[in-house]
Amino acid sequence: MTTMTSFRKLFLSLLMMTFVSLSASSQSRRVLLRTTMGDIRIVLSDSTPLHRDNFVKLVQEHFYDSLLFHRVIANFMIQGGDATSRHAEPGAVLGDDPTDYTIPAEFRTPQLYHYRGAVAAAREGDDVNPERRSSGHQFYIVWGTTFSSQKLDEYARGVEEATQGKTVMTPEMRQTYRHLGGAPHLDGQYTVFGWVAEGLDVVKSIQKVFTDDYNRPVDDIRIVSASLY
């Protein structure tokens, strides 16, 4: 094993230990998503109480039970929460759910950002949603990829510009994006409200499935049930 490989493994191990430590100390709600491809355990952050409480309410109402991961993009993310996906016909275009409501943005960078495994709220684009309010029930789980220092410089400049300097990529964030991966271009613009505590292997498998021209998996991937634990 090379020195660089040893360093990378040590870094990832310490990083995951940090996330587990956060999971044990700073949040009051955990959610188990049982999917047709395996279980995903999510921790909801106390620093985003509007999103946390909304997600808990939906879980307790069994809203997510039997919904699909209707949008999956390799090396980026998996998305679910469209109420119309429960009984969707094969090939139907999903994601434009008319029953939606919105939640005020709760940006908490650098505490919460788009590293691999982050759970965030989907939303409408800036052109119709300048306040960047979140969807009431559609969410995504980040997979992403790793980035070179040069590419991170580009993303950092873009994010600072898009957020009028309110979001800055810290050295710790850069290290995470270089060695663990994620989607840095979304920071400060989409609310991250939790992270995957267990089941990243399931997320990895889901984001690699075959999809149609609208990024819907050809074979349905369903959230069988969502519950607090």
Beta content: 15-25%
Strand-and-helix sequence, N→C?
HEEHEEEEEEHHEHE
Structural class: alpha+beta
How far apart the termini lie comes to: 39 Å
- Gross morphology: globular
Uncertain stretches of 5 or more adjacent residues: 17-27
**What does the largest sheet look like?**
8 strands, antiparallel
Mean pLDDT score: 91
Estimate the helix proportion, in percent: 25-40%
Number of helices: 5
Task: Indicate the radius of gyration in whole angstroms.
Answer: 17 Å
Write down how many β-strands occur, each being a DSSP E stretch of 2 or more residues.
10
- Can you list the strand order of the major beta sheet? 3-4-8-6-9-2-1-10
Describe the structure in your own words.
The protein is α+β, with helices and mostly antiparallel strands and about 230 residues long. Helices cover about 30% and strands about 20% of the residues. Strand 1 and strand 2 form a beta hairpin. The longest helix has 23 residues, at about 5-25.
Any key phrases for this structure?
eight-stranded antiparallel sheet, 229 residues, 5 helices, alpha+beta, single chain, two-stranded antiparallel ribbon
Outline of this structure?
With 229 residues, this protein is an alpha+beta fold.
Topology:
Layout: H1 3-25, E1 29-35, E2 38-44, H2 49-60, E3 69-73, E4 77-80, E5 102-103, E6 118-121, E7 134-135, E8 139-142, H3 149-162, H4 171-179, E9 192-198, H5 200-206, E10 223-228
Antiparallel strand pairs: 1-2, 1-10, 2-9, 3-4, 4-8, 5-7, 6-8, 6-9
